[in-house]
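Problem 12. The chain below contains 718 residues. Write out its predicted structure in token notation.
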Amino acid sequence: MELEEFKQKFNLPRINDYVALLSESQKNWFWEQLMEIKQVFPNIDIYHAGASKYGYLGFGRKRVQAKRVEDFLFVLHLEKNGNFILYIADQTYRLLRVDEDVLPQGYDQSVQKELNLKDWLDQVKTFTEELDLDYSGEDLYPVNYEVEDYFTTLEAYNFLKTKYQKIKEATKKIVGFRNNSNRELALILENSRPSLFIGVDPEDNQYFKFNFIDNNSKIFGKYDENEGRHDGLKSHAPSLYKGNKAYYIEINSLSDLEKFCEWYELAIQNSLTNSHPKEDKEMPDQIIVQPLNRILFGAAGTGKTFNTINHALSIIENKSLEKLETENREELKKRFDGYKEKGQIKFVTFHQSFSYEDFVEGIRAESDEDGNLNYLVKDGVFKEISIDAQIEVDAKKIAGNVPTDFSINSAIDQLIERAKQTEQVFYTKRKAEIKVTSNSSGTLFALNSQETTITLSIRHIKNYLKTQQDNIVDNKAYEWAIAKSLRSEVEYEKPNSDSEPYVLIIDEINRGNISRIFGELITLIEDSKRAGADEELSVTLPYSKQEFIVPNNVYIIGTMNSSDRSLTGLDIALRRRFTFIEMSPQPKLLEGVNVDGIDIERLLTVINQRIEALLDRDHCIGHANFMSLKKQPTLENLTHIFKQKIIPQLQEYFFDDWAKINLVLNGNGMFHSKPIEKSAIFPNVDSEELGYFEDKKSWELVPTSFDNIESFAKIIQH
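Solution.
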């Protein structure tokens, strides 16, 4: 089948909606790859298309029963950065039971350039045939579908199941989903039009259109805690069943369903659900739904690491980013450092040497006082914060009162001060005496009866105090003895029901070997696999042999420099488990900054417009490069910024193509070309061979141009 004939075969509104989102080069790639797919799976059907800003296509057999998840083979996803990812649907990939190294779950045309798509598709076909998963169909091209005049429940189901994890396998009547913010929704399959039970009142939303459905509720489409509703909610979406508020709505288009999903993940929900507060009482704080895993991505200098502070505080303090942006930066940093010191925030930077042993756990060799070498299992940064977060959850379940964090920190600080002055004596469970001292930096040491000095873990002392447990954990018997002694020095209060969030910030997340660092945790960090989720998973760690699970109060914030050409993209399996938040250059932050008549906001805007035209938006110049001009708006500072930051960055972006760099700077005189004196350099070479240099130019920097404000003015001249 020729390409044009092939395009006509797929000339359907839902396919056209998807293709309309693409650039011309993307359209060509799309049709070429679709031809490849059809050659390997000649009768596979495209049965769904997303008409949102970033679209999805699903590939499989025509549906016979809604619950037959194995009918779904591929998803083709257009990402925000314009890349295509073709991946095997999760349900089908699990059926294949194959290792990622043997058969990658996805094909990313921007990353896996060395992998031939045809070869990958042939591999997929081999594995599906071995398991008798037949995707040959019966010549089920999209034209065989009857395109209905209205948006159907089946179309809504096909969209939701590719986007979210099902809580339980669908019945003929109902299916429940849990979204990326751990919020439940239920789709009623027995209705012809999409009818949803949800947990947030959508009445005043400005994002999507809907209708409330009358289903014998006192208030049209709204159920209070005591009103009966669909019995299927009890097992398919328990948080929406009787005993909780729920809302019953109808959505009439795919576009509105997509907007609803976006709203439902990010909506702010009032924390009081049982009653309406009286007007004379202060309104309670609102719960801001936060994604468990997010990555801030953008070009260099766009404030990714800078903004991790606000994102971490937003999670811990339940404040919106907009509200935090109005607060004093020094005060924000002070609070951030406080949470970090407390252990509620941890910060790590990935690099090529960073390993699983650094992140999760590994065996480390340590020598004791006698010089003997001991091999101990040491926790990595992620395991540490996960254990601390789980202890926080467990402490809330303790009957009676629990120690306050403030009094725990205070008791330990006082112990350190006493230990600096004189030895503090404690007794282990076996009545062995230990003497505790501290150095000037506040590190605690224990001297046991064998005269061996051991460095103590303040983190474990805190955790023992929080849980008040009598079991020794990780052989930390000395820390247990100290914690037991300090119980009388801390203050107690009735625990609240909410567990404190813990935040792990991973700077430069794409600089590390993701598969090697995360290992089996790639699966465990997924929302639906966390502790307390219906599909929670645990693994046995390789070194300690302990069962490990990721708590649902651990949040991961990563940063990723999208302009670093030395890096490959993120592992596809990991990428799908993160919410991506773009950090674009913000010239408006430089509003009012003026250097000898040069508007810096406009200067940055114009430079980035030219870079986008010559390259792409991932390689723009970040506003952070110019922020020092707000305090020191001088020509000397501007010159320093260009020489030390902007010019080297442009060299990196354009691979030292000085002609393009000169275009970005509008030929402002900071560089000039000069002819290559061929005969002087190559005196014994024939003139014909020197023809190689006809189009060659030599470029050099003009140092004096940086001392002249006119050079910078020419950049934005028209």
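Discussion. The chain has five domains: 3-144, 153-270, 293-359+498-582, 399-493, 587-716. Students who got a different answer should revisit the alignment rule from Section 12.3.
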